[in-house]
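Hi Prof. W.,

I finally got the protein-glutamine gamma-glutamyltransferase prediction working! I wasn't sure whether to trim anything, so I left the full sequence exactly as given:
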Amino acid sequence: INWHLKENARDHRTSKFSSKELIVRRGQAFIITFNGTGHLEQNLTFIAETGPKPSKQAKTQATFGISSTVSKENWSAVLQSTTSNSVSISISSPANAVIGRYKLNVQSTSMGSSSPANLGTFVLLFNPWSSGDDVFLPNKAECEEYVLEEFGIIFAGNKHHINSFGWNFGQFQGDILNICLSMLDRSLNYRQDPATDVSHRNDPKYVGRVLSAMVNSNDDQGVLLGNWSGNYEGGKNPSSWTGSGEILQNWKKSGFKSVRYGQCWVFAAVLTTVLRCLGIPTRTITNFSSAHDADGNLRVDEFYDASGNHLNRGADSVWNFHVWNESWFSRSDLGPSYSGWQILDATPQEESGGIYQCGPASRNAIKEGDVDLDYDCPFVFAEVNADCMYWNYDPTSGKKILMFSESTVIGQFISTKAVGRDDRVDITSDYKYAEGSTKERDVFKKARKKLGLEDKFDPTAPTPKEIDQKPDISGKFKVAGPLEVGKDLNLILVLANLTSDAKTVQVNMTAWSTVYTRRPVHEIWKDSISVTLDPQEEKQFPIQISYAEYQQHLTTDNMIQVTALCHVAGGIQVLVQRDITLDNPAIDIQVLGEAEVNKEVDVEVIFTNPIDMEVMDCVLQVEGSDLLRGILEIDVPPLKAGEKSSTKFKVIPFESGPKHLLVNFSCDKFADIKAYKIINV
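And this is what came out:
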């Protein structure tokens, strides 16, 4: 048999896979040729089957002879050409066929009841280029980006300060396709009932939901173990990964033990790799000021003590950013208006159906407040819409007083990478109507009503009187100077008296290092001042937190939360807070010469130590699809204050076109400085 690997891969847009096995997309014909058949073609019967118990009614087995036309509903074979000793046949699968690895057998009826001959195996994938497929995406440029592109950009930081880094999805590299298929075969659904599970693999809703559970380790020994503690001993710090390939390969190599450690963007990036590999258009989405509403009341509560410390109390939280996925497919279960982008989230936050999985939630359903639709719409709706309540809590008496509430802070600057360019696109308006507009408030009310929150008395909720109380003063933190690791942090606290009476204010200030979920890790600074404000007066108070004070306690997220709790004599307390993200110093990548396929080219990475102390334990990590196989790790000698280092290495590209080289530099004072360079091969 000749599988025509090259021609079929070209027609099915699977040429980027480096496989000796035929990989094709459903709903589209592929050609095979037999030799030595001796005019049996009229009497050939093919059997294509997948899964452990193939059956016709489960649509995991198809038996079909040679016919004159292609069938839309079923598998079919059409004669292409014959010679004296060979026959070419075009085989088509239906657009809703089960995806996965198939065995192909052939039987000749003219030989009597001979047993079928096994021709070998092939892999069938989703087909976003085929109009009959649930994942059909009409825009060709979007298909290129969301299925075939191996490089991505992930946005992070906070709403005042968005930063980004490159990621190597690498869905076509090495053994990734086999690992993706084994993820499906290791899911809880497969373990419980293999035959039924395989029969549902024609449905992108099902496949997406199952894989959102398999990317995290909870429940099913899935790919990645989450860790948000700030201490990553016994594994790799989540911010040090640069691509999904290493994670998926490590999972397989260890005998499918969960890889340590992941945080939200790592879960989302791995899910992007797996879904793109299987042919479902997928992208990563970053939501800034993302709510984690643990109790389903569309409200997150935050607690502060009298000194202004953010208390780790209650299950609700507001993350500086959270990353999830959108995948493109139709929703026959909900109707055409809910088709299109669907939200999937592999980060283990809350259980759904008893296990840690999330989605697919229709993005249109989220925008319209249709939170009663499958799957997990209330949780996703809260991530972008929840109201925020800030309480002063006294741990000794257990009493809490509402300081203020906000309905416009959650879900801002929702971001994804542009199609065909390395830019940020803001898609907030695809998730909700303009913040504060009547339409947006109506949708919020509709969602509350559908969740039964309108009629239910909530003893933990603030009273209308508490919500309506007006503060006597306002405050904010302004940044005064660079936000860079290695430099002192300079801020200005601005307080303004909003009344026509003089006010005395006791201000308790703290600064804590945090992880990106705003979970406080270590106190780095505190101070308190007493202030008198004349009627309508505004005063500024400079604050300096030195590098020496924060250096020891900074997490690898480079984040600091600064809080001022203002006790106003005779008035309500006012909370002023700001989340600060510090930038790492830059690294520079230079390609020395022309890059050509199968020829060595030199690359130089330059880093200058910006601080006045030595940096040690320097490691450079390099990867890039079609440029390097696996990951290059280079130890870099220690650098004295202000010293510049140049590290050179060679790459041998094995595919032509624009390729992305990703580097990650770490040392004892700076964690995971990332950069990437486009190399035109």
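The longest strand covers residues 520-533. Does that look reasonable to you?

Thanks,
D.
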